[in-house]
Amino acid sequence: MTSTALLTDMYELTMIKAAMHAGTAFRRCTFELFPRRLPPGRSYGVVAGTGRALEALRAFRFGDEELAFLRANGITDPELGAWLADYRFSGNIRGYAEGDLFFSGSPIMVVEGSFAEVVLLETLLLSIFNHDSAVASAASRMTLAAEGRPIIEMGGRRTHEQASVASARAAWIAGFGSSACLEAGRSWGIPVSGTAAHAFTMLFDTEEEAFRAQLAAQGESTTLLVDTYDVDEAIRTAVRLTEGRLGAIRIDSGDLSTEVRRVRKLLDSLGATSTRIIVTNDLDEYQIAALRGAPVDGFGVGTSVVTGSGHPTCGMVYKMVSRADSDDRSAPQSPVSKKSKDKSTIGGQKFVLREIGDDGIATAEVIGVGVTPRSDSNDRMVMVDLVRDGQIVGTEPLSEARARHERAIAELPLPGRKISRAEQAIPTVFVDETGRPVDNVYVAGKPPANL
Amino acid sequence: MTSTALLTDMYELTMIKAAMHAGTAFRRCTFELFPRRLPPGRSYGVVAGTGRALEALRAFRFGDEELAFLRANGITDPELGAWLADYRFSGNIRGYAEGDLFFSGSPIMVVEGSFAEVVLLETLLLSIFNHDSAVASAASRMTLAAEGRPIIEMGGRRTHEQASVASARAAWIAGFGSSACLEAGRSWGIPVSGTAAHAFTMLFDTEEEAFRAQLAAQGESTTLLVDTYDVDEAIRTAVRLTEGRLGAIRIDSGDLSTEVRRVRKLLDSLGATSTRIIVTNDLDEYQIAALRGAPVDGFGVGTSVVTGSGHPTCGMVYKMVSRADSDDRSAPQSPVSKKSKDKSTIGGQKFVLREIGDDGIATAEVIGVGVTPRSDSNDRMVMVDLVRDGQIVGTEPLSEARARHERAIAELPLPGRKISRAEQAIPTVFVDETGRPVDNVYVAGKPPANL
Questions:
Q1: Is residue B146 part of a domain?
Q2: What ipTM does this complex have?
Q3: Across the interface, which of B132, B180, B252 has its CB nearest the CB of A340?
Q4: Which of A9, A70, A196 comes nearest B157 by C-beta?
Q5: Does A414 reach chain B within 8 Å, measured CB to CB?
Q6: Do B129 and B178 reside in the same domain of the chain?
Q7: What percent of chain A has pLDDT over 90?
Q8: HSE-CB for B70 with a 13 A CA cutoff
Q9: Which of B256, B274, B305 lies at the terminal end of a domain, its last residue?
Q10: What element of type H or E holds B240?
Q11: Name one Pfam family in it (chains A, B) (predicted).
Q12: Are A59 and A2 in contact (CB under 8 A)?
């Protein structure tokens, strides 16, 4: 992996330079990465990006090329340049495990170390979580709407070419079955799939020749795209060529809800009763939900998943929540918060418990401010160690994140599974050391006024 | 640059494999990359991505690692593997020059070569143009709304970390003044800027200490962030410390429209009459336009520009528009088109002229189907050669694209500069060899019914 160090906003470096001169750059601090609120109408979000963030952290190194650029542009002075050359994050990171759900104010990541080493990671961490979690949050709703029928992620062409790979990864965590993107297969071991586009049919003099060529190369289990010219004629041809044994057809246009019913009848009448119907065509979770009773066997989703279905970013922010009063490494940290209008933060280290009822269903996201919330037997602690004293300890196979997502979804109360406009699935409650809600930040399914 | 070859949908390879077996893989074809329509309410789009696409084309090579992955997953057979190993695009590409405007149906790129070599580029080209042009299209509207006041792109943290760099590039083409992203500075020479975040202020025991530290490191021309605690108090401190010579203040919260007027008065009353006011806080083109008469000297824009201000992708597609009837390299190509419901394409090679009136204002986008439109003296041909016989000839400095954007915007009719909901600025007209509009695809400021 090439260096990720310059995927950083310039002001991180100007702040560190100024703090170095002032002698405050190495005060111990804690920063928190959190979403102020869920997008309107969403009942939960899905954490994605953790594994990529840990990889990016490993590659966060200022090499000769990076340092030369910074020096040539007057961004570093010799002291800052020397410090960057040796930069290795040496602090601690705790956070939500990948695939788990998040809610308003959830401390997705808590990063602790010297001000300089912690603030420097702001841009990169936010980029990764804001993107990947937006995609996973949308994908999870599509997975719910599909009710077990497989979804292929095929949106790579609708987003930046590298975001494409990260999108495939995030969608897979959130339950998609495969991706069209080859690099997602190579980088992350995600199952890849794909058959043919309209251009393939158009390459041949007749549709029948195109189908024959595809069947010869891919076998009868393949998926034939049937809407380049006339759908019914294409289906008759496809069934005839395979004597009814065709694996699947794909429809990429028209009013799918009526079309699939008609097409199912036609396939059945021709004896192709086990030929599956795959639909694509600007689908999102609402259209998938609308096809609930329809004879659809699989979905391909593109634009809407890679663009977060209306919410392409999560609005996560990275804020200082506590710091030491001196440069002494062992000095205790005190909570700090800013008071900007509508953008204030809640100071203090956070510890999170998902309160789970006897029926296994979540009832609250309890965030202890400076304290670990008390737990009952069913409750589970949400945060895990990701980096300890600079050592990455949170790496896991991607399949773990996918399995965790599935378990976390199973804990959702029924109203939280609604695809239509919903409230937050469970309330976020900030508690103090007495276990009682912190007065001014109680969140009843909504972000508090001052969060 | 590492290989871009696997940033490709799997079906491009399954199609090529099947076509190879059928003997049609090397028929000469022409594919066109075009947007079916502009997003609702937009009067124009901005082409961005061309320079990146040419770089990505140069890096589109299947090395040992890529080939091993494909072989291991049964995606390639020996014949396809051998062909990919030698893959070098050998065809021709013409297209809109970067920074120019586009409209419904504009053939942004026309790619000609063998079916196999041309179809293989589909995913990567679409990813780049769909992303970069979405950002540039949004950025251009913000530039118009800012009426000459500089805009800083600071949205890297809201999008995928690599999309961040491409976004900074696209925004700069469309008139932004600088970017917060260091990698955008290194990769593309874009001016970078940035000063401090709230965390910097919170690192110190008092706001005054923080301001002193920043002034010491960056000088009095710096921008001090004044809304961590109390805005008025911060401004008084900042002016006092610099004896009124402070470069700028930044406000990142509150109702900016009333706030900046109040703050301007305060600065003036304290004698800091030349201290500039920079505003940030989830700005988009509408909020920038709403600050038209306000004493704002510069804007920072994040989320809205990197997410295309409501339209994070352009909906560009890549479709076969003509092909030869045989594998003979010199066989003439005939137009082809698909007839899918609501998604039909217009067959044939396209050549584009921007019709310009005597006043220098554009009046139509004239697209010749299979023919070069006749031009008058003021008109200009829109497409340029980008690749000839596999040789990249369209590389240019990024500043060319930025200058071209500025010139193209100067040609826009006044209603086309509206930030509020508008029709397409000029009509798209498809013409045939007689110069007359092609009957069924005349576009009067709107996409035709069948486009």
A1: no
A2: 0.95
A3: B252
A4: A9
A5: no
A6: no
A7: 85
A8: 30
A9: B305
A10: helix B231-242
A11: NAPRTase_N
A12: yes
